[in-house]
Structure formats: structure tokens, C-alpha cells
Amino acid sequence: MGFILVDTTLRDGEQTAGVVFANQEKLNIARMLDEVGVEQIEAGIPVMGGDEKDIIKKIVKSNLKASIMGWNRAVIKDIQASIDCGVDAVAISISTSDIHIKDKLKSTRERVLDQMITAVEYAKKEGLYISVNAEDASRTDDDFLFEFIKQATSAGADRIRYCDTIGILNPIRTYNTIKSIRDTFGVDVEMHTHNDLGMATANAIAGVMAGATHLGVTVNGLGERAGNASLEETIMAAICSLDQTGRYDLSKLKPLCEYVSTASGRKLSPWKAVVGDNIFSHESGIHADGAIKNPKTYELYSPEDIGLFRKLIVGKHSGTAGIKNKLYQLGINMEDELGALILERVRSHSIELKRSLNDMELLIIYSDLKNSEVCYA
Q1: From CA 84, how far away is CA 45, in angstroms rounded?
Q2: What residues form DSSP beta bridges with 281?
Q3: Each residue of 45-64: pLDDT tens digit?
Q4: Tell me, what's the pLDDT at 95?
Q5: Distance CA 83, CA 53 (A)
Q6: Which residues, including other chains, have CB under 8 Å from residue 155's CB and lie 6 or more apart?
Q7: Residue 369 pLDDT more than 70?
Q8: Beta carbons of 208 and 182 less than 8 angstroms apart
Q9: What does the buried/exposed string (b/e) look like for 45-66 if buried means 16 or more CB atoms within 10 Å of the residue's CB?
Q10: DSSP bridge pairs for 47
Q11: Which class for 207: exposed (0-12), middle (13-18), buried (19 or more C-beta within 10 A)?
């Protein structure tokens, strides 16, 4: 059930409204993706020319282990621009749904097939690895989609990119569709899923379970509208849900996500799945007590694996075990008789402040109650 990651942060990720990466940032991101172990990097759109073409050339010349792909319309001049950049792989994209063909392309199914075949045959003669992208595949008539795939593979496509362009899929439909394609054609299939309904990563994983060989992802889930399947979520879902291990350098995930967050101007949420700072924070008394006794009771993997730290939060939902452990971390062995008093004061303060307490506020409560105990002794 293995798969190859195709990261498109530098193409689809940069298409996030308002996001522009500086050239050096694009080069840095490509290098960091390579360090994580991403197998293929979609570096941009060469036919844009100018800075876009220059930085793609620099990425190609950076001696990365990853394959470097250029994105293209099904147009010969686009492919020529990719060839000029020195990429070893091209994505050739064209719409396949009737709404796109009629209203966007002002074309017909027949012309779409002819245009795709011409582009694929040209790229094949140039010795390139070819992904044929069926844009809006998830809204494409099944019979036409299958004909499109048949013609693409006959023309020389190495894989099909199944694009859930508006994020309309669900995991069950994804599984059934990808299994049908794989059973019928045996061709490599890449999942390219968008997050409009919050299911991009789930659909990507469902695709792998059905036999998809490639997964299109972006760092932090950047991308058009609600974004794409998230690189970090996909990797950890594969490890924790599909029992795939040892392929990627998890210690590089957090620095990569933080760098892309800064470069994109999109703040990394504390509750962001996998890499958010709150992922290993425990406040609830039951959860904190379990995590203290055995972290695996409430943690899928070790925070150290991806450069995070376990944190015990003191607040309204804390228990005495969590408070005692937190004070111990601060160099204090809490007397058992103070536990209930401190817990009551912590909960009262947390409700009043409408938040958890910081270390200093907890120490003040401890000091006040400790001194009161001494005075009344």
C-alpha cells in the first residue's frame, strides 16, 4: 500500500489567495521538502517565464534527490518552457468535466481529447515523465473520464492525476472511484484533493487504500480556496492509520511547516493537526493523569518525533495529578494536603480570567496557600 508524495506547495500552494513566495524562499522550501524525503516536487509553472522560470531552473540545478516537475496546460509551448527549465517530469492539465469544458474552455469533449493527446505525445518524444491531470475529475461523466484515461495512457502518460478540484468527494466515493480506475486500467493514479468540505486528507488516504500510487499534498494544506491535502497530516495518517513507517524524516516536519507559515504569511494555528503547538497539551484532569502515567494513553506518537513538546496546562479542567506534576516541573513538591485547595483556587481563577493559568499565576496560588497553611499551623 505504498505511495509517492508529490508536493505542490510551490505551485498550487502559492496559488492561495494573497500568497507569493520570494525566489529564495522557493529554493529553501524545495530543499526542506527534499530533506523530509518528498519524492517529487511540483516546482511551478515554467511558461509564466521571468522569475518563475529562473527559480525553477535553480531548483533543478540544486542536486536534490526528488524528481522536479513543471505544471503545464495541454499546450506545446508550455511543455517547451518546462523542457527549457530542465525538469524531468511534467504535469499536463486539462479540464474533463462538462461544466469546465463548456463554460471555461468553450470547447468540446472531442477537442479536449485531441489537445491532451497532442501534448502527451510531444512530451513523450522528449523523454519526459508525464502526469496527465484530469481537472475536475470528480464532476466528470464516468464514461468520458474512462475514455480520457484510456486515451492518455495510450498516448504515453505515466500516471493520471485525479483532481477533486472543488473538494466535493467523500472517502467512500473516493475509494470506489479509484479502485474502479485501478482495476480497469492498472495505471498509476495520483490523488489531488481539495479541502472545501474539510475532507482533503481523508480523501487522499482513502485513495491510497483503493490503490492510488501518488498523493498530491501541500505544506500546511495551502492551496486554492480552502486548500489541499496537508503534507504533514498525510504523512502521519499513513504512519498511524496505515502502519507505514520509516520513509520520511519526521524531525524535519515542524521546521518545514513553520518556515512555510512565515513565508506564506499564514499563521500556523496552535490546534493545527500534527504540528500545532497544542497537539501535545493536556488540561483535562483525566487526560493529564493518563498522559503522566503513560503518554500513549492519549498520544498517537511521541512529540519529540516531530520536534514538539508535551505540555500540561493548568486551568478549569485540571485535576490534582496534573497540578502536582506541573509544580514538580517548576521545582516544587506539592504537599498532598494542599492539592484540593490549590485545585479549587485554580479553577476559580481560570473561570474568572476565562483562560488557563500561566506558571507564575500557579506559583502565586501555591505560595499564598502555603503561607496561609504556615500561618495557621
Answers
A1: 12
A2: 311
A3: 999 999 999 999 999 999 99
A4: 98
A5: 11
A6: 116, 117, 120, 121, 124
A7: yes
A8: no
A9: bbbeeeebbebbbbbbeeebeb
A10: none
A11: buried
Grid cell of 40 as nine digits? 517529487
3-class state of residue 361 by DSSP = helix
Q: What digits encode the pLDDT tens for the residues 23-47?
A: 999 999 999 999 999 999 999 999 9
The answer, yes or no, to whether residue 376 has pLDDT greater than 60, is no
Instruction: Cell numbers for 370, please give them.
Output: 502555603
**Could you tell me the three cell numbers for 149?**
484515461
Return the DSSP state at 135. Answer: E
φ/ψ (deg, to 5) at 211: 115, 0
Going along the chain from its start, the domains and CATH numbers come out as: 4-264 (3.20.20.70), 281-376 (no CATH)
Backbone angles phi and psi of 265, in degrees to 5: 70, 20
Q: What are residue 194's phi and psi, to 5 degrees?
A: -105, 160
Give φ, ψ of 354 to 5 degrees.
60, 40
Name the residue with higher pLDDT: 235 or 329.
235
State the CB neighbour count (10 A cutoff) for residue 274: 24
Of 259-263, 356-360, 370-374, which one has max mean pLDDT?
259-263
Q: Give the DSSP per-residue string, 141-202.
A: -HHHHHHHHHHHHHHT-SEEEEEETT----HHHHHHHHHHHHHHH--EEEEEEB-TTS-HHH
Where residue 377 falls among pLDDT bands split at 50, 70, 90?
very low
Whole-model pTM: value is 0.88
What type of residue sits at position 76?
I
Q: Return the C-alpha cell found at 25.
A: 524562499
